Amino acid sequence: MLEGGSVTFSYFGCEPGSIMVLCYSLAGPGPTSFTNITLDLSPPIGSRPPLQINSYGTAQLGPLPIPSNIIVGDQLWFQGVQVSLFGSASYFTTTNMIPVTVQ
Q1: DSSP label at 24?
Q2: Nearest to 99 by CA among 14, 30, 15
């Protein structure tokens, strides 16, 4: 991630037709537990709007502009949450947490 630039997140190997939510933290790694899932992020945890995974199990979010308040040296932590829907049931899985230092 470059200050003032943009970033694109790509998802591969996901459950086709599932929903992916990109979560992020400026506070550091977790864990933080919720009712159905534990994230490797520390509160406050933000998120982007849900993204539909295509029939190939892939999706792309971006390019997204990096906010002007994010500057060189800032650290950010990202993690995806996949929501798979089966009838009236759903289950959650997470991607690996990715730490990033803005360049």
Answers
A1: E
A2: 30
Rounded CA separation 26/101 (Å): 11
| Strands 45-47 and 19-25, bridge-based pairing | antiparallel
**92, 97, 89, 75: which is closest to 36 by C-alpha?**
92
Provide the whole-model pTM. 0.89
Identify the sign of the CA torsion 97, 30, 17, 9: negative
Q: pLDDT tens for residues 58-87?
A: 999 999 999 999 999 999 999 999 999 876
Model pLDDT for residues 13-26, shown as the tens digit of each residue: 999 999 999 999 99
